[in-house]
Specification:
This protein is an all-alpha fold and 346 residues long. It contains 18 helices and no strands. It starts with 18 loop residues before the first helix and ends with a helix. The model is unreliable at 1-19 (pLDDT under 50).
């Protein structure tokens, strides 16, 4: 995802070099301490003398209105001055300004791409990630998945968790890079260890299915649990199935029903279908064909469900229709509509 706000990454400089650098360190310290008036004075002096780092921070102050009235014209002047000297934070800021039309600046995707690439080439992690997204989506330049993969991997190597997830996905499907499941799992693990919910879910799947890694249902459950705690409903469904089958966790139908209800309430089509199965069979809940049919209808209302899920829904519908009255089906449809409205409101 392209960031929607400007980010200033603190410039990491050795503090024992020239007097000018020491002055910038003092100005940056004042800025970070919220002493904006002092920082403004010191940064102005340094910026006028050509210090690119000072110019970049000064530009940010004009955008944020810190000890000065917000002034996009002045911000752009100082960002351009810094960017033309190769200051990568300023280059990144100009890219975001052009990409998002910050402060009323006209959106210019081509200019955004030029500055984004300049910043990325100098090692700016966020620019590398965003440039990868721009190549994927053809924003300001031609779509190129190989280039996207190159920049995602560069950002991933610096620890950007979304880039780690993205390059892991590209290695999984072989887009822009050769198919490499082992590399994919390694990148998912690195992202998962940083807390990336979908990477945690994918890593759980790998451990559960033993795909290019030693099967380990307990490890799978652990990763699913971490992902589920962040609201990843597919992980909640996976934990529900594992509880239902006693794989990697204790077998407990009531826990399974509770987890699948959680996913179903969050709008997960697979969770809604599986909850319908539980109500049909009376597993972890009391058998209730009206409840089963209602959840079945909710699952079937989703667009883009897989052919297999669509077939499962049709099969269960036919089975339920054979044992339900017309009034029960009408009641189930009314329940489904009410629940769908409640989910939409929430």
């Amino acid at each position: 995802m392209i960031p929607r706000t400007l980010l200033f990454l603190a410039v990491l400089l050795p503090l024992a070099a020239t007097p000018a650098r020491a002055d910038f360190a003092s100005a940056l310290a004042a800025y970070n301490d919220g002493e904006y008036q002092q920082a403004l004075s010191e940064l102005h002096t340094l910026a006028e003398a050509g210090n690119a780092d000072a110019q970049s921070v000064l530009a940010l102050m004009y955008i944020e209105g810190q000890a000065v009235r917000p002034n996009m014209g002045e911000a752009l002047r100082w960002y351009v001055a810094a960017a033309e000297q190769g200051q990568m934070d300023a280059q990144y800021a100009l890219a975001i300004i052009a990409l998002e039309g910050v402060g009323g600046v006209a959106v210019d995707e081509a200019t955004a791409a030029l500055w984004m690439e300049e910043s990325a080439r100098r090692g700016h992690m966020y620019a590398q990630f965003d440039l990868g997204n721009m190549y994927v989506n053809g924003i300001g330049l031609e779509r190129d998945h190989a280039e996207a993969a190159r920049w995602f991997e560069a950002a991933a190597e610096q620890g950007h968790q979304d880039a780690q997830y993205n390059i892991g996905t590209l290695y999984m499907i072989g887009q822009g890079v050769g198919v490499n499941p082992i590399a994919s799992i390694e990148w998912f693990q690195r992202a998962a260890e940083q807390g990336h919910a979908t990477a945690q879910y994918n890593l759980g799947l790998a451990f559960l299915n033993g795909e290019h890694i030693e099967p380990n249902p307990a490890a799978a459950a652990g990763w699913f649990r971490l992902s589920a705690e962040q609201g990843q409903t597919n992980a909640v469904v996976a934990l529900g199935l594992m509880s239902l089958e006693g794989e990697g966790v204790a077998r407990d139908q009531e826990v399974a029903a509770r987890l699948l209800r959680q996913a179903a309430d969050a709008g997960n089509a697979e969770g809604q279908y599986l909850l319908a199965v539980l109500f049909t069979r009376g597993l972890g809940v009391e058998q209730d064909p009206v409840e089963a049919y209602a959840w079945l209808e909710m699952a079937d209302s989703h667009e883009g469900i897989s052919p297999q899920l669509a077939q499962n829904l049709d099969d269960l519908r036919q089975s339920l229709a054979g044992v339900m009255t017309a009034s029960e089906i009408a009641e189930a449809n009314a329940v489904a509509r009410a629940r769908a409205n409640a989910i939409a409101i929430n």
